[in-house]
Amino acid sequence: MQFDKQAPSLRKTNRMAGLARDWRLYLMLALPIFWYLLFCYKPMVGLIIAFQKYNLFKGMWGSKWVGLENFRFTMQMSDFSYALVNTLWLNLLGLVCGFPVPIILAIMLNEMRSVGTKKVFQTLLYLPHFLSWIIIGGMVLQIFSPTSGIINATLLRWGWIDKSIPFLTDGPHWQATYTLVGVWQGMGWGTILYLSAITGINMELFEAAKIDGANKMQQIWHVTLPGIRSTIVVLLILNIGQMMNISFDRPQILGNAQVRKFCDVLSTFVYRTGIENHKFERATAIGLFQSLVGLILISGANFITKRLGEEGIW
Fold first, then answer.
1. Taking residues 274-290, what's their average pLDDT?
2. Which parts of 200-275 fold into alpha helices (H)?
3. Residue 8 and residue 4: Cα distance in Å, rounded?
4. Above 60 in pLDDT, residue 3?
5. How far is the C-alpha of 48 from the C-alpha of 66, rounded, in Å?
6. Per-residue pLDDT tens for 179-224?
7. Which of 17, 46, 51, 147 gets the most CB atoms within 10 Å of its CB?
8. What are the structural domains, with CATH classification, of the chain?
C-alpha cells in the first residue's frame, strides 16, 4: 500500500528530472510544433466553408449555412467524374510502375563496389527530384513533342516509324508519358530512403548467407529484401493513402486541351471550378472529400497490413 502511494510521486519526480535534463531538446521541438499548429491545425477551422454559401465579405462566421449542398452540387457536375477517375487511375499507374523502381535501384547501388561510380549514379538519380515541374515540362515538350520532339524526329529520320507517335496529344499515350516522367522524377528520392534502410541491415547476416553458399541473388532475396520489408510496408501504406491526392503543377503543365478528358484531375478541377470562379466553398468541399477518402484508404491499408502480420504505421 505504501508503495502504491509513492508510485505517482516517483513518476512525477522522474518526469521533472527528465524535463530538467532534456529541456534543450524540448525547446527545439517547440518550433515545429508551433509551425504545425499554425499552418496545419489552425486552418482546419476553415473547413466549415464547405457547408456554407460562402460570402467573401461576410466571412465564414457570417455566411449562410447550406449543409451538404456544396458536396451534392459538385459531385453532380459532369467533369467531377472524369477528374475522380483520372486521379485514381494516374495514381494507380504511378504506384504500380513507380513503387518497385526505387527498391531495385537502391539494391543495385548498394551492390556497387566502386565508390566513385556509386556517387555519380546517386547524383544523377537524385537530380530530377530537385527540378521544378516548369523545367521538366519544357524538357518533356522538347523530347516528346509530336512535331519537333527529339524521339519522333529521330525515329522518322531513321525510317523506323511512318508517322509521329502522339505522346502528348493522345489520351493513353499521354497517360503513359505522364507516368514514366513521374517515375523518373521521383525514383531518386525513394532510392535514398531504401539505401538508408539497407545500410541498417546487420552485415553479419550477409556473411552467414555467404558461408551457407548463397549467391548474390539469394542474398538479396533472403537478406536484403526481408531487412527493408518494414520500410517497404510503411511507404506502401503512405502511398495508398495518397491515392486521392495529386499535385496541381504536374498535370497542369504536362496536360493540354487535346487530352483534357485524360489529364483533368481533382486538383485541376478544384482550381478551375473553385478558385477561378471564386466558389471557395466548392473547392473546400472537394478538399474535405479527398481528405476523408484518403483517411479511409490509409486506415484500411494499415489494418490489412497488420492482419497479415506486418507492422503498420500505428
1. 86
2. 203-211, 216-219, 225-227, 229-241, 249-254, 260-263, 266-270
3. 8
4. no
5. 10
6. 999 999 988 888 988 998 998 888 888 888 888 888 888 888 988 9
7. 51
8. 70-307 (1.10.3720.10)
CB 196 within 8 A of CB 106: no
Please enumerate in sequence order all residues whose Cβ is within 8 A of that of 67, keeping only pairs 6 or more positions apart, or say none: 51
Cut 0.90: pTM above it: no
As beta bridge partners, residue 52 has: 65
* Mean confidence (pLDDT) of the chain: 87
Burial (CB count within 10 angstroms: exposed 0-12, middle 13-18, buried 19+), residue 263: buried
At position 124, the amino acid (one-letter code) is L
C-alpha cell, 266? 481533382
8 — pLDDT class (breaks 50, 70, 90): low
Give the DSSP H or E segment for 20: helix 2-21
Class of residue 20 by CB neighbours under 10 A (exposed 0-12, middle 13-18, buried 19+)? exposed
Going by C-alpha positions, the residue among 293, 286, 236, 299 that lies closest to residue 94 is 236
Contacts of 265 (CB under 8 A, 6+ apart): 83, 86, 87, 90, 246, 251
